Give the backbone structure.
Amino acid sequence: MEPRREQDFARLVAQVQACRHCPAMEGRRRVLSAANGSPAATVMFIAEAPGRRGGEITGVPLTRDASGRRFTRLLALSGLERDTVCITNTVLCNPQRADGANRRPTTAEQSNCAGWLSAQMRLVNPPVVATLGATALKALARIESHRIQLREAVAQPQRWAGRLLVPLYHPSPRAGLSRAYDQQEEDFRRLGAIIRDHHPGRIRVAGRAYLPQQPPAATLVVPSCTNEGP
Ligand code: SF4
């Protein structure tokens, strides 16, 4: 990684660690560090928030808890390796209910953290963004508006902000009510195929750079998203 990007990332991490925008997040870990992955990644995954049994404990998004274990299995199906991608969240702290259970981040918390997500996007500048769940997909509209709906666009490449956006469902068991796990497995395989078609040589399979044996699929249609507000 270029030293300049490394320095900028370290500065961003320091700013986030000092963030006190959300009163309910006092005492919670700010889950952004070198452990989120490569700041020069081709693919940035964006989930909803760190989990109380996952990122809040480990400091690494999508690890340790049920969502993390499922994500690790799904990521393997895509052919991507964790150390070559960047993983972050719509909000960087773990939102909890009064009883300590995870909760969805409030609209205010999502707005508060949108600037940090935008800063990560500018710094990493990934050609491919994969959102995990509706909250993450909506969060992108705060950076550059779009009208993409998860249900209609799941695993279909979209153009957004000069990047390729692949909307996916969140790997949490709860999301299984909307998207069966075997469908999610297919979605992640498709994500791998999309990246191999659009960015050959930029992902590794079993530790080696992947180079396609076939020319990119000519049938892959990437619709343009509108720039109207959601
Ligand atoms: S969720 Fe984001 S904006 Fe809110 S305190 Fe944590 S880092 Fe700051």
Remarks:
- Residues 107-124 form the longest helix (18 residues).
- The chain has seven helices and seven strands.
